[in-house]
Amino acid sequence: MKIALAGSLSLVLLSGCSSLGLDFSRMRGGEAPAPQAAGQPETLYLDLITGLRGRGLHRAALAHLDEYERLYERTPATLLLRGQSLLDIRDDAAALEVFRQITSGPEAAAAQAGIGTAAARIERWDLAVEAFTEAVRREPTNPRYLNNLGYALLRSGNAREGEFRLRMAGELDPNSAEIRNNLALLLLATSRRPDGERLLALMPSAEARAALRREAAQIQNPPERRS
Question: Beta-strand (E) ranges in 3-43?
């Protein structure tokens, strides 16, 4: 499935922070920061939690989110980080519950993308299309959201609209291999093999090319669902 975890936050450096009120150096191993003085820097703490997630310490990030909300407050930013961390450990049901609490503000588009990702994992393509459409409505020039919407539209049976969205994403981010591969998948799945194969030729891995061809064949001839 070629759906990115959209809306992920940037990894930050974890050094040179101990003078700002908390000793964050211990977080290199996922430990709790030791308080040093009053007036703890909330923004820095959130950045460092983001850094834990970026390094693959997803459960440590969740523990620090609990600690952050105990020390400060629950905000849309903490909810978004929590939902994304839950997606990272594939607790999709819990992630959906968290993302649905974010209904407005700058985090809302990423929350909708998170809902779409969780829905795509269980092949709820109707819900995925709805969520990614809302993410794109909120951020119309975000190529990751457009890419995910295009893929979900293809899987929901609307290849024409899916192609439009993928080509739009490709023009916004022409260097994205993920967008290119999704467009190749769509072309193969809609019986435009020469065009699809031309894009496939840009993939360096023969194994990846074969996997994409298999996925295209499955989209063309979906297995019968048992009642």
Answer: 22-23, 34-35
